[in-house]
Design brief:
By secondary structure, the chain is an alpha/beta fold. It has 3 domains: 10-279, Alpha-Beta Barrel (TIM Barrel), CATH 3.20.20.70; 311-396, no CATH class; 407-528, 2-Layer Sandwich (Double Stranded RNA Binding Domain). It contains 20 helices and 14 strands. Bound molecules: 3-methyl-2-oxobutanoic acid and zinc ion.
């Protein structure tokens, strides 16, 4: 963890950046992950964090350590693993939160504590029950405490855009005096317009004392579809950090989409005169990785990374494109990492070609994981004529060791008849050596398989989410099954990929059972340890 003290503009050693460089603060793993349907386990978060570092984000908000032990562990692991990206942890302006965030960041090479406290009259009265003076004093005390742990402290005035501008300037002035190095003005409820954004940031930069000692930041939500426009407006009025997420995921309608902000700054460089540290050729692979890991696809027409973003359907457009690309294209697919030619891999391809392709798709695999992936690649290549990028992504996701053991599926049969219920039989083996077979009927083959697995493993699961998607094309396409189930008052996710969707569903259900069982073993071991029963 960084402990030396320095003003924000100098601490990164990029003096040129203060004026011309916009810092990209990625919050995919915190604000993004908070949104329903996007929760990620620790391993998934680490995989995403590594891809974000390769993408070149400046600051990566890894989570909210005080929120849960899982969040703490994820932040700690990401902090330990990343090499040069600043790893950030969120904390309320409370002693416990700050101390926990600092502990989670202890092993980081570069770290930041991100404090937030509401400042708007609505939040002061109804959420906090605090006066202006109390808000001010709490913010100052918290920043001072965080600065004892970390030289890089960000303060966010939650609901800033509905806060009285003079009070906001007063809080920010006090925050700088207390040691904050980044000041974030979030549009927490996505209420603002670009013109208002320009007005506020211009005002703040004029009225905050010692404004030059901190970096101003925007954090915009997309409730009215203006998050990206508002972020860019803030930048044009002097903000030099934007907080955003891959594919724009986030609370409610989401956060500002990282890929859109970055490409707007790049494509319209003559207009903005600003740069970022993002390797834009990694945008598409990173976006794809997120959709694969969460099972949530982006709309076809999504800017920059949607399937249609570079597709030209109408004859007039195609004709123009063939004559001169820039008639209808403002950026090239390669600029965002969409390969124009897809290298086809098949059963004769080697390990080297496979690794290269996986890396190009944003998957960084170590040698050990590569052994398993290569084996599964060869098995798939025996079944499929042509292995496409989507297949490879599926294989790479399947590398998650969480998806295997202690239970393994050894046999699966299902039958269904039009107008009547379906039945399934499963045979499972457990790593302790015993085997179990069960049969069940259900409202369809998926239901029957789930019931049979529940019975065989003795695990109660209430299915709360189920999605199957084809992730490649053709009759031998792979299906991605993603399940969410409730067990012991908690949601558990499992996903798997197979050319047979029922088989993919069974593996996804088993991945959930395995997580539940491993977690139980882990807790039992911890309990024994705390009682002095185990070493
Ligand atoms: O939207 C918001 O206000 C936030 C803060 C925690 C920065 O996410
Ligand atoms: Zn937010």
């Amino acid at each position: 963890m960084t402990t030396e003290t320095a003003p924000a503009n100098e601490s990164n050693g990029d003096s040129e950046s203060a004026e011309d460089r916009v810092r990209i603060f990625d919050t995919t793993l915190r604000d993004g992950e908070q949104a329903p349907g996007f929760s990620m386990d620790r391993r998934t978060k680490l995989c995403m964090a590594q891809a974000l570092e390769t993408l070149g984000v400046d600051i990566l908000e890894a989570g909210f350590p005080q929120a849960s032990p899982d969040d703490f562990a994820a932040v700690e692991e990401i902090a330990r693993t990343l090499h040069h990206t600043t790893v950030c942890a969120l904390a309320r302006c409370q002693t416990g939160d700050i101390d926990t965030a600092a502990r989670a960041l202890e092993r980081a090479r570069q770290s930041r504590i991100h404090l937030f406290l509401s400042t708007s009259p609505l939040h002061r009265e109804h959420k906090l029950g605090m006066s202006k003076q109390q808000v001010l004093e709490t913010a100052v005390a918290s920043i001072e405490r965080a600065r004892k742990y970390c030289a890089d402290v960000e303060f966010s005035a939650e609901d800033a855009l509905r806060t009285e501008p003079d009070f906001l300037a007063e809080v920010f002035s006090a925050a700088i005096a207390a040691g904050a190095t980044t000041l974030n003005a979030p549009d927490t409820v996505g209420y603002t317009t670009p013109a208002e954004m320009v007005e506020l940031f211009t005002y703040l930069r004029r009225h905050v004392r010692d404004a030059h000692k901190a970096v101003f930041s925007a954090h915009c939500h997309d409730d009215l579809g203006m998050a990206v426009a508002n972020s860019l407006a803030a930048v044009s009025a002097g903000a030099r950090q934007v907080e955003c997420t891959i594919n724009g995921i986030g609370e409610r309608a989401g956060n500002a989409a990282l890929e859109e902000i970055v490409m707007a700054l790049k494509v319209r460089a003559p207009h903005f005169g600003l740069s970022t540290g993002i390797d834009t050729r990694k945008l598409y692979p990173t976006s794809r990785l997120l959709t694969q890991l969460t099972g949530q696809a982006v709309p076809r027409n999504k800017a920059v990374v949607g399937e249609n973003a570079f597709a030209h359907e109408s004859g007039i457009h195609q004709h123009g494109m063939l004559k001169h690309r820039s008639t209808y294209e403002i950026m090239r697919p390669q600029d965002v990492g969409i390969a124009e030619t897809t290298l086809v891999l098949g059963k004769h391809s080697g390990r080297h070609a496979l690794r290269q392709r996986l890396e190009a798709l944003g998957h960084h695999v170590d040698d050990h994981a590569m052994d398993g992936i290569f084996k599964r690649f060869k098995a798939l290549a025996d079944r499929k004529r042509e292995i496409r990028d989507e297949d490879l992504e599926a294989l790479a996701i399947g590398q998650d060791p969480d998806a295997t053991g202690p239970w393994h599926l050894t046999q699966l049969n299902t039958s269904s008849h039009l107008g009547s219920s379906a039945s399934a039989t499963v045979k499972l083996s457990h790593e302790d050596g015993h085997e179990v077979g069960e049969a069940a009927i259900g409202d369809g083959p998926v239901d029957a398989v789930l019931r049979a697995i529940e019975r065989a493993t003795g695990t109660d699961m209430e299915l709360t989410g189920f999605q199957v998607r084809a992730i490649s094309e053709g009759g031998d396409a792979q299906g991605h099954a993603q399940l969410t189930a409730r067990h012991a008052q908690r949601d558990w996710n499992g996903s798997s990929v197979s050319t047979d969707i029922i088989e993919a569903t069974a593996h996804a259900a088993l991945a959930i059972v395995n997580r539940i069982e491993r977690q139980g073993e882990h807790h039992a071991a911890q309990a024994m340890k705390s009682q002095g029963v185990a070493p």
